[in-house]
Design brief:
By secondary structure, this protein is mainly beta. Helix content is 10%, strand content 44%. Strands 1-2-3-4-5-6-7-8 form an 8-stranded antiparallel beta barrel. The protein starts with a helix and ends with a strand.
């Protein structure tokens, strides 16, 4: 490639628009085991998530360590609170109704249809990961 052609190519590449950012994770997401759908929505400067669908619509938060909260409904329960922490990345906390515990959380949007949620025991490197798929 001649010098002037090479310079023209480099200039053209630098003028290309940046790769389009993903639209964001607001919407309904089916968890990895398929047992629940979580509705992620904008709230304040961040994102919140609540249980939108579960097999037993009458299920209660029976594993909550606080006895006063064990009779609250799981359906509609807020479980996720996140703040943007990078490109396609949000960090915060998630409540796991299966064991009644709060975990530090990191949500990574992989595509318009896939997010990965990593939950860690707060203050440790003990973590688990789940892939969620967008519902239409």
């Amino acid at each position: 490639m001649r010098g002037s052609s090479r310079i023209a190519l480099i200039m053209a590449l630098t003028l290309l628009p940046p790769v389009a950012a993903l639209a964001g994770p607001a919407g309904k997401w089916r968890v990895g085991d398929g047992k629940a759908v979580i509705n992620i929505h904008n709230c304040g400067a961040g994102l919140c998530g609540s249980i939108d669908s579960i097999p037993d619509r009458n299920a209660k938060d029976e594993n909550n360590p606080n006895p006063a909260q064990r009779s609250r409904a799981l359906l509609g329960l807020p479980i996720l609170s996140l703040q943007k922490s990078g490109d396609n990345l949000w960090s915060g906390t998630i409540y796991n109704a299966e064991d009644g515990q709060n975990y530090s959380a990191r949500l990574t949007q992989k595509s318009e249809t896939v997010v990965t949620l990593e939950g860690c025991v707060q203050g440790t490197n003990v973590c688990g990961e789940d892939q969620w798929t967008r519902q239409r």
